[in-house]
Amino acid sequence: xxxxxxxIFTTVFGNKKDLKINSQKLINLFTPVFSDSVDPRxxxxxMSAVNTHAMHISKIKPTxxxxxxxxxxxxxxxxxxxxxPIMEAGAFWEKVARNYYIDNNVFIYIDWDLMKPKTPLRSLxxxxxxxxxxxxxxxxxxxxxxxxxxxxxxxxxxxxILHIARHVDTSEIFGGKxxxxxxxxxxxxxxxxxxxxxxxxxxxxxFVINTTVxxxxxxxxxxxxxxxxxxxxxxxxxxxxxxxxxxLTQVNSQAKYANADEMKIFETKILNYLNISEKVxxxxxxxxxxxxxxxxxxxxxxxxxxxxxxxKLFTERELDVGNKVRIPSSDMQIVSFNSRVSLLQNSKEIxxxxxxxxxxxxxxxxxxxxxxxxxxxxxxxxxxxxEYQLNKSKSFTGQNQNNEGENDNGQNTIK
Length: 415
Description:
The protein is α+β, with helices and mostly antiparallel strands and 415 residues long. The strands form four sheets. The protein has a four-stranded antiparallel sheet, with no helix packed on it. Strand 2 and strand 3 form a beta hairpin. Helix 2 packs across helix 4 and helix 5 packs antiparallel against helix 7.
């Protein structure tokens, strides 16, 4: 794509597309979250928690609105169905969540098609933090990102990158290293390695043979091998014979590693670090526990993502006129069948939800004319109550006056 076209588009539609990259010296600021010696992906407790977060976040359906009405359907289709030609939305947001909780940083490249000014957003691409160089240009005072995408080297400004950070460090921009949890992972990893070593060594009997005869290195090695072949091999009898010139001592080695209670403490620390409970991982939470989990863990991510989408996808003018991305929490909520029935019974008379919204509660598809709300005639608007009562009073008074003035024959009567 020619840069001149980008410049023209930026001038007309606002300063939110790729900027020209200056050739001044760039300074690398990005540091991986975990060192090479500790990989959280190898810890089952850590990854079980991350996978649970990712599974729930994969359900999100970002939708574009204009003044509270769905708008820009092409953009909603990209965000909620197919962000790019090789990924569907569920897998896309699942991978985003994994990067967020493992690397503390999410980088999503916004690919604009400048030949289509009415539908400029073409696709979104996840850039792995390990494959991206984040640099700072001292002259322009801006951050730039360099990475490879589909075989092409790309350098772009921060305006074209959706960035979501967790545990932001002193740089106030990027998610930083968390050495506390790294130490816990090291301890667990060391413990597992100790258990593995103990299992391997337990398959061998280790002995020391003492003799009163001096031997050179070659003879000692030969005698040890003969003893092992004769008595310790699979064809051995299990009974050893030594003469008076030799004695045999067995060496017992017991591996030292954390017990079950100590391991439980370390695993709990990991769950606390990731703001999740065992019940949520196992899917045994009730509605109150789910709501607490959503508010403590997922809502923060959803808010950050929503803000980034609004800032990076729309110009200030578009935001001012009412363009907005929303991520409804209803697609992620866990509601029991009994609670759904109760909601239907208690709200059907006041028109809280449309017919199709009620059907969605029970995993049923929409129906024609299902966007209407049904209400009971036993209820009226509070704003109309006074008028209703006043009209009723006037009608009643007029009827009484008529009855007092005339009988059925038109004659005046007194009551």
